[in-house]
Design a protein that fits this description.
alpha/beta; 547 residues
Length: 547
């Protein structure tokens, strides 16, 4: 008698001891499929079947090169029964029906009656049905030349998880080349696995999955949908975070409130308002049309590369920043005053296009608002409208926006009230920029709250300098700030930047770093150095002006 340590396996579902038991099973010789159809590997490695992201090609290759026999029989009470028929002596034939099985036995000189044969009690593995899916949905076996399979096979896109590359994706490719002689689909987009904050896979068994109905009732269907999409970069696991869903809900609120703002304005004819206001409205509309066109090109590029979360983020920024934070502020009338008709109609037109762009991501709120924009009777619902196309909108510079941003940042850093009018002047690098500032003068004065748009030919004394691109923007703050406090703040910032420059110089002076780091990483460090040096020069000039 000898003591032996034995590793005992337990079922993860029932916690029962797992004991080995020999039994008869049905297998498929997968190596024969691979040998017969080398395109199974070639098609994926050459991008004839394109994986998104491409990193999963290596996983696919590993499975193909290490393929083993496939056990297709399962001991379950449901499913498609294995079409094997056994005689009392244990011999068997494979046939679709008992009648067909009897005929096959007769061909072997064995005679049986109905009821004497016994069908195998096992059913086939789920994946044994699923690997035929691209063909079977179009009735491609019973009716191989029907119009549907001719029109739709091979299909375009398969969306699935990376955990079933072997079980489903590989096997569908094998079946496609075996039974149809061509690939089953053109693209495979891999979603991530949804995990909780502990990085555990969400499952019913662990009970770590939030109730989607509760989430929808609290944050709205579009909010939940957007929150999931924002955290779903192709092929990467999704770390579920309720904050993302809240962000989705807040975005829905932003869109809704933007529409309420516009619909709440009183509308008058263009002739009833100052001509300068009408022109600024036209300019604002041209600016947003250009931003919208550029954003659409970016979104379409991201769709083409299956970078869906990035496409949504581009749409999010366009709506939140460009439409709500800038465009609506540009055309918004003074409190209690009406908006002129051309600006109002342009705003609703832009809003309609924005809703079409957002619809694939947020179908419910966009459909609701689109109907309201069209007076409850659109020509067709947004779900069947054409997706907007990036047009050739004339380029409109955003340096006026940069001007306003610099003034607002200055107010925040100095604790100055937005209601306090500031005197500014600008020294332009070229006349083209000067023309743009003059074109946007009404909008700049309105949103930056400055006294007037002044242009200089040389640097003034006693003014704080900012940079708008390469143009020098001067702000006269003598009466608005404490010079001593301001000098101290600038000195502290200079001290910080000098330390920062030392660390960047040390990194760029390290030959190993420059030689081995990626070129874009090295370039970023050089850009950091250039930006810090430019800011240091500006701070020193401002300190000299205060002195």
């Amino acid at each position: 008698i000898e003591d032996i340590k034995n590793s005992v396996g337990y079922s993860e579902r029932t916690d029962a001891v797992i004991e080995p038991r020999l039994s008869k099973q049905w297998f498929v010789d997968m190596k024969k499929f691979i040998e017969k159809n080398p395109k199974v590997l070639e098609a994926v490695m050459s991008d004839e079947i394109k994986f998104h992201p491409a990193k999963f090609k290596n996983t696919y290759k590993h499975w193909v090169e290490n393929i083993r026999e496939w056990c297709i029989s399962r001991q379950l009470w449901w499913g498609q029964r294995i079409p094997a028929w056994y005689a009392p002596d244990g011999s068997f034939v494979v046939a679709a029906t008992e009648d067909e099985a009897i005929k096959k036995f007769e061909a072997q000189n064995s005679k049986f009656e109905i009821g004497q044969l016994k069908q195998d009690e096992d059913v086939v593995d789920t994946w044994f049905s699923s690997w035929l899916w691209p063909m079977s949905v179009f009735d491609g076996f019973e009716n191989p030349n029907n119009p549907d399979i001719k029109a739709f096979y091979p299909t375009d896109d398969l969306v699935t998880g990376p955990d079933i590359i072997f079980f489903w994706v590989l096997r569908m490719v094998m079946a496609g080349y075996e039974y149809k002689g061509e690939k089953p689909f053109k693209n495979v987009y891999f979603t991530g696995t949804v995990r909780d904050h502990l990085r555990r896979k969400m499952s019913k068994q662990l009970g770590n999955s939030p109730d989607p109905v509760e989430l929808i009732s609290k944050f709205g269907a579009d909010g939940v949908r957007m929150g999931m999409l924002l955290s779903s970069s192709a092929g990467n696991d999704i770390l579920f975070d309720k904050a993302m869903v809240e962000q989705g809900r807040n975005f829905c609120n932003k869109i809704w409130n933007a529409y309420r703002l516009v619909k709440g304005w009183e509308v008058v004819e263009d002739s009833a308002v100052d001509n300068e206001i009408v022109k600024s409205g036209e300019l604002a509309s041209q600016w947003f049309a250009y931003k919208f066109s550029e954003a659409l090109k970016d979104i379409e590029d991201k769709f083409t590369d299956y970078r869906l979360s990035e496409a949504l983020m581009a749409a999010y920024k366009l709506v939140w920043d460009d439409y709500c934070s800038w465009y609506l502020e540009m055309i918004k009338p003074e409190y209690g005053k009406p908006i002129h008709r051309s600006a109002y109609e342009a705003t609703l037109r832009h809003f309609s296009e924005v809703l079409k762009m957002l619809h694939p991501f947020m179908p419910f709120i966009t459909e609701e608002l689109y109907h309201d924009v069209k007076g409850g009777k659109p020509e067709k619902p947004v779900i069947v409208e054409d997706f907007p196309k990036a047009g050739n909108a004339a380029r409109v510079s955003s340096i006026a926006i940069d001007f306003i941003t610099e003034i607002r940042n200055l107010r925040n850093s100095k604790g100055l009230s937005p209601k306090e009018e500031l005197r500014t002047a600008i020294l332009c690098e070229n006349q083209e920029n000067a023309a743009i500032y003059r074109q946007f003068e009404y909008i700049i004065r309105k949103l930056a709250n400055i006294t007037a748009l002044e242009f200089l030919t040389e640097k003034p004394a006693g003014a704080l300098q900012l940079l708008v691109n390469k143009d020098a923007l001067y702000v006269f703050l003598a009466e608005s700030i404490n010079p001593e406090e301001e000098k101290q703040k600038i000195a502290e910032e200079i001290n910080y930047l000098q330390g920062f420059l030392k660390s960047v110089d040390a990194k760029l002076g390290n030959e190993k770093f420059v030689a081995h780091a990626k070129p874009d990483v090295v370039e970023k460090e050089r850009q950091k150095k250039a930006d810090a040096e430019a800011k240091l020069r500006l701070l020193n000039q401002n300190l000299a002006a205060l002195n």
